[in-house]
Specification:
Radius of gyration of chain A: 19 Å
Radius of gyration of chain B: 17 Å
Largest sheet of chain B: 7 strands, antiparallel
Distance between the termini of chain A: 38 Å
Structural class of chain A: mainly alpha
Number of helices of chain A: 5
Oligomer: heterodimer
Strand content of chain B: 25-35%
Number of strands of chain A: 2
Helix content of chain A: 40-55%
Helix content of chain B: 10-25%
Distance between the termini of chain B: 9 Å
Amino acid sequence: WTQYVPPYTEDCLTDMYPPKGPTFKGAVSWYTVDLDLPPRKRWSAVITDKKTDLVNMIEAIKELADALVPSGKLIEMVDIALPLMVDTLPSPFNEEIRGIAAASGVPLGEVVLFNIFYEVFTV
Amino acid sequence: CTSIVAEDKKGNLIHGRNLDFGLFMGWDVKNKSWIISEKLKPLVVNLDFKRNNQTVFKSTNFAGYVGMLTGIKPNIFTLTMNERFSLDGGYIGILEWILGQRDGMWMSFLTRSVLENATSYEEAKSRLAQTKLLAPAYFILGGNSTGQGCIITRSRLLSIDILEIDLKLGRWYVLETNYDHWKDPFFLDDRRTPGMKCMNQTTQTNISVKTMYDVLSTKPVLNKLTTYTTLMQVSQGKLESYIRDCPNPCMPW
């Protein structure tokens, strides 16, 4: 009965592996990141494949930001202030982030936000 | 998040983790799911970082994110990171950064640098414990020898505690969610007790990649925030990951 009331604690499951059933939503693709390439070029293959999903995720965050600050000022601040911050980030992360923004078409400030989100989230 | 490092009877170390993210970032009433968590799932990728065509480390990541939250340096160590809540949090680090005090490191840039450059479990542990951070965190580190498994509890400036596997004390695994291990977890978010119950029920004799996946699939260790599960075996240099779902009834966190 505990699995029907929060926190829905189940008996310890067995035989879930290999992954299957309703808790398994799919396998994960493999990519190579070549560290011998210039930082700006390292993520091109990944981003070319995942561009649409990245744009969708960023859009969802922007919708949340708009819900919080309807005036759009929050997003404006991200798009104006965070690009200024990218050069303060250590190498090679700054150049890799620039490469991702260029390959995905997502504004640089928003890619920076995604990459420092762990620290920002505490706000 | 839930991260586990366990040592089996033969001394093999197995490292597993659920990556949970998106709390309070928009609830989709129709689908009963968190909006950002669902948007992150298609971005999950496995990455093989190479130099001179040789694997340096491997990682499970979100496309577009250059830092590391989950990774393995084959035959040397495995590393995951869980969020740690503290009033002295990341926003203070960001403020210091903006004001020009830049001697701290961004959390996921540190984990990336350790995976890329550290050459041993001890070196990784030392760097994760001693490098100044912008935000607090838990680092869960597994090595390649018996006893090499630990949870490093970090504030922004200090290494507050390091809990290691200790077979003599019967501690054959370490398990971390998002609360200091010497304190009770928040009563509305106790994933530690069910997680440890399942690990103890599995026993050291039966722990394996398979049974660790079972533990990470049991609610509420698996919850609506869980985007992926990764399983790593350091001695085989193997990393595998799976995108997850949590059918109702399921805890939102």
